[in-house]
Amino acid sequence: MKRLKRLDLSTETLTFLRDRSDGVAVSPDPRAEAARLWRQQSNKAFQELRETLGKMASGLERCMYCEDSEGTAIEHFWPKSVYPERAFDWLNYLIACSRCNSNFKRDQFPLDAAGAPLLVNPSEEEPLDHLSFSPSTGRFEPRSPKGDPSIDVFGLNRTTLTKGELLLGQASSSS
Ligand SMILES: [Zn+2]
Q: Of 21, 112, 140, 171, which is most buried with the most CB atoms under 10 A?
């Protein structure tokens, strides 16, 4: 996981997101409305969202959690099923691969006692402050209270991933 810089959107797309957020806010069932509106993505705004997230990612549209696979879906850091008010918030969007998004994170979102996320958000903080990768074990190790929950929820120590990271580690240490 690498620190990412969030890029700016056009005024049109920000207005589009604000309109959808307003629609969720006034709905008697915000969760259902967020889910319904989320399915409507065939428009210019979503094209720009996907392109901008692709540019923010490290490498070519890499998953922002594992960096191992192509980021194929817009990921809500704060899950939209639990926090529908953040369903159309640009600051809440990352891109993730289907394994990180669907097999691992899903709607898991641990919070600390003060209500702050216990997961590392690579667009808001330096992942190295919370996680380190050990080339000798091929595994991520926690460096802060966010370390273990992030490793667990994002599945960062899954076997296929640590093998890939190991190869990367070998490649960079031999060069
Ligand atoms: Zn991933």
A: 140
